[in-house]
Amino acid sequence: MTQAIHLFAGPGGLDVGALAAGVHGTGIELDANAVATRRAAGLPTIHADVRDHGPADFPGATTMTAGPPCQTFTVAGSGEGRLVLVALVAGVKTLGARGPVDASVLGDERTGLVLEPLRWALEAADGGRPYRAIVLEQVPQVLPIWQAYAEVLRAEGYSVATGILRTEQFGLPQTRRRAVLVARLDGPVALPEPVEAPVPPGDRSGRGRRPSGAVGVDG
User: Fold this and answer.
1) pLDDT value of residue 219
2) DSSP 3-state assignment of 111?
3) What is the DSSP letter of 5?
4) pLDDT digits (tens, 9 = 90+) for 117-147
5) Using an 8 Å Cβ cutoff, are 168 and 214 in contact?
6) 3-state class of 136 per DSSP?
7) Closest CA to 82 of 66, 67, 71
8) Phi-psi label, residue 197: left if phi above 0, alpha if psi -120 to 50, beta otherwise
9) What is the DSSP letter of 173?
10) Torsion sign, CA atoms 170, 181, 103, 4
11) In the beta sheet, which residues pair with residue 166?
12) pLDDT at residue 77 in the model
């Protein structure tokens, strides 16, 4: 049975998607409300800070997913993360070279958490148990960081695809865009093809191919 570790697992969206694909796993989440939701849904959960753990704690996991905090990157948030994108991309390259990154220079501590999935991926590889598959998501403003991740992961032998996906094109009742990275070791990888047309900008009517009752949200 395929096992996964879900970082910044939230209330369990990625867990549910993974379970639908036959992938069982454990989520690490710090927010108490999200943890309560997960446990009420019967999802295996560790109430902890991702930074206090590593792949050695979950030696059976062959898949990693992560959705780091978005508050400093989203247009509805502080914007601190967007201001240090260049430093974050440099941090990705430093991690790829196995160098240290001082997250304190990035301001809000939530900003540097976007680098944690790469730490986990590289530690797993260096420990001789690389993840066979990796799935990451964040707000669109983080795409340059995922693209920098892709360069590092390709050097580690992964096939990688990155891009922006729109939720309404996959049957969800909302208009939300997300920067996504998918990677795998055992073959080529590609982002999924949309199954519905995109909703025109500013359209809140719910008409067309968009599911009835959709909510317009774009973090």
Assistant:
1) 46
2) helix
3) E
4) 999 999 999 999 999 999 999 999 999 999 9
5) yes
6) strand
7) 71
8) beta
9) S
10) positive
11) 177
12) 73
Longest pairwise C-alpha distance within the chain: 52
Token reading at 167: 């939720």
Report the amino acid identity of residue 156.
E
Residue 103 phi, psi dihedral angles, 5° rounding = -65, -15
Can you read off the two tokens belonging to residue 104?
Answer: 């304190």
What is the CB neighbour count within 10 angstroms for residue 163?
A: 15
Q: What is the DSSP letter of 195?
A: S
Phi, psi of 137 (to 5 degrees): -145, 150
Task: State how far the Cα of 15 lies from the Cα of 2, in Å rounded to an integer.
Answer: 13
| CATH code for the part of the protein at 3-216 | 3.40.50.150
Q: Which two tokens mark 60?
A: 């059976």
Residues in a beta bridge with 179 = 138, 164
Q: Are strands 177-184 and 133-138 parallel, antiparallel or unpaired?
A: antiparallel
Task: Point out the residues of the chain with pLDDT beneath 70.
Answer: 1-2, 202-219
- The 3-class SS string of 183-210 reads EECCCCCCCCCCCCCCCCCCCCCCCCCC
* Per-residue pLDDT at 171: 86
